[in-house]
Amino acid sequence: MIIRLGRNIATQNLVPGQAVYGEDLIKRKGVEYRVWEPRRSKVGATLVKGMKFPLRENHLVLYLGVASGTTASHLSDMLTKGMLFGVDFAPRVLRDFVLLAETRSNLIPVFDTANKPEHYRWVVPQVDFIVQDVAQPNQAQILIKNARMFLKKNGHAFVAVKSRSIDVTAKPGDVFKQFKQEVKASGEFEILEDIRLEPFERDHMALLLRKK
Amino acid sequence: MVQLAKTPVGFFVVAMRNQVVEFEELSNQPDKAAEQLLTYEEWVTRMKQKGYDIETDEPALDPMKVAELIGVSESAYLARSREVSIAVAKAAIKKHLKRDLLVVQTVGALDDLTKTTNMLMNRLTEWYGLHYPELKVEEDQEKYLKMMVQGRKVSDSMGMDLAEEDLHIIMDYADSIRELFRRKEALEAYLDRIMAQVAPNVHVLAGANLGARLIARAGGLEALSRMPGSTIQVLGAEKALFKHILKGVPPPKHGVIFQHPLISRAPREQRGKLARSMATRLAIAAKVDFYSGDLRPSLMDGWAERVKEVEQGETKKSERSENKGKQPPFKSVRVKRGDKHGKK
């Protein structure tokens, strides 16, 4: 699903000819790939750094903080038999994601705050995978609430934690430690991997979790 | 006991988690279905009137599993969800686009024009200066342009003589700059008009330009209306504010609010106090503008007294206790808790 091209990674373009955010399109043996920019996407950064990302082509994904869909577009490439629900509460960026969803049959826009999972229960079913990139001070609680409502047992969650969004004054290391404790204390997850995103993002950590 | 479920396919009453006792199907047309989804609460009321004993403590049902009960396959459910969600999201985004966003763009366009005209004028004065270096109009770019067009020139100028064609090109260039100045004037007048509609109280207190800047910095009138005065006071001084939070240097006294003539013209040591006082008034003004939209001239009540107080230095303790029984200056415009507009 993901190929390595020298230093870059890329996904096979689900909509040949379409570049979503100005990324390069590359042809290999007649197949078109979209280069995944690690500086534009935290999932991309962790993949370049070698973290596991157990997404399968038939997964149902809930993406919290989907924004314009830069990262989601690559997940869309990978989900050839799956579906992604992208939640965001900022109208300006969700506008772009709606336009993207109209061109890709495996993307669903949800205009709501990830703080209120009950608001979108009417459309989102149980999912295999949650991706969270929300940059909110209470993002651990947001994750836990959503996982309780939507994530299947043994389902995975990928979380990007931005230290400065949680507490600008604290040291990033302390914020990350606290975050992991909060996630563990919920009893919902097992932490599989954690990784810092330098040099692609400053003061960011990515976590891979599995629901118990 | 039954459970209710709202899904992209329709509304369900489900007994024992797997028996559909009522089903209200939504339209096949996504736009229509998006509208029908908004009537869910009314449908719930109807179901209650029908006498169903509704379970509310149980977690909500998985909509895909509920749809499966009437034979909707997973792939059909997902395809349908996508169509309906796109329609719902489009309608919701449309609802969010209000006229304050025009204010944000207009003030941005004004800034762009100011930057551009400054840049173009720099070039023009250098260029035309080859021909007429004696022409200097300090600070007034529009006057410079006017003098240029008049074309009179001192007889003993040390400037270069220009051919008809050279002069023509420079004049055309100057003309396009004059056009930009005219555009700026038109935008300023327009900004004044829409600010008076969108945020009449902020407009009166801060003026069109500063008011628009505050709305732009906050990210819209709703966002501004949710801000406390202390945040409004330092909008535009984020760098200094974070330096304060991180390194403990003294906090900034004012952000863009400094542009307010009552603050920037005040003596240095009074500006912080006046900025704080103006910011709290603006916070109330923004709330009134967002939630009611009426003009409340009383928002400036007590300002002159406050300025006098600040001029005379610290209020004495005895004076403060005298003021105790008096009404706070803005009581009349406070948004009450539980007011229909007070909470969303």
What does this molecule look like?
The complex is a heterodimer of chains A (212) and B (344). Helices cover 28% and strands 33% of the residues of chain A. Chain A is an alpha/beta fold and 212 residues long. Chain A has one domain (37-211): Vaccinia Virus protein VP39 (Rossmann fold, 3-Layer(aba) Sandwich). In chain A, strands 7-6-5-8-9-11-10 form a 7-stranded mixed beta sheet. In chain A, strands 1-2-4-3 form a 4-stranded antiparallel beta sheet, covered by helices on one side. The model of chain A has no long low-confidence stretch (mean pLDDT 95). Chain B has a 3-stranded antiparallel beta sheet with strand order 1-2-3, with helices on both faces. In chain B, β2 (10-15) and β3 form a beta hairpin. By secondary structure, chain B is mainly α. Chain B has helices at 30-37, 40-49, 63-69, 74-96, 100-129, 141-150, 164-198, 200-218, 221-225, 229-233, 238-247, 261-264, 268-291, 303-311, 317-323; strands at residues 2-6, 10-15, 19-25. The interface between A and B is medium-sized, with 25 and 29 residues.
CATH topology of chain A: Rossmann fold
Number of domains of chain B: 3
Number of domains of chain A: 1
**Can you summarize the main beta sheet of chain A?**
7 strands, mixed
- Strands of the widest sheet of chain A, in order across it, are 7-6-5-8-9-11-10
Can you give keywords for this protein?
heterodimer; A: 212 residues; Rossmann fold; seven-stranded mixed β-sheet; 28% helix; B: 344 residues; mainly alpha; Helix Hairpins; 3 domains; disordered C terminus
